[in-house]
User: Fold this.
Amino acid sequence: MLGEAAVWRPDKPTPSAEEVMADPRYARYLAGWPRPGDGGVVAEQGGPVGAAWYRTFTEADHGYGFVAPDVPELAIAVVASRRHEGIGRRLLLGLIDAGLAAGHTALSLSVREANPARLLYESVGFVLVEAHGTSWTMVRDAGPAA
Assistant:
């Protein structure tokens, strides 16, 4: 699923689990799973079709959507053949609820401005807090998922 999250464009092949975990840019989102504070949800239908998870980071070692040590950064993926079925929305809402239940006051993420998933994030309350070229860092403050 991390490979699906890392390479969202349909014209790019999804890297293998080994390739993703060998790349520190991506491995930080799953290496040593689960660490204290990690959380996630999985969608299955005859096997995994999507997953969403969050992890907290530090100022010194963080992901692309980092905003603060107490705000987990999320990653989400749906296998390409199952996109546009509402799976991502259900995963995202479930992850927001899980984060609230765990006591998190906000969640953050990084998304390319051109990624169609950005509209999903906006529809559930994520807002732009910083742009880095074509990448957006977005945050959703605490509150029940819609």
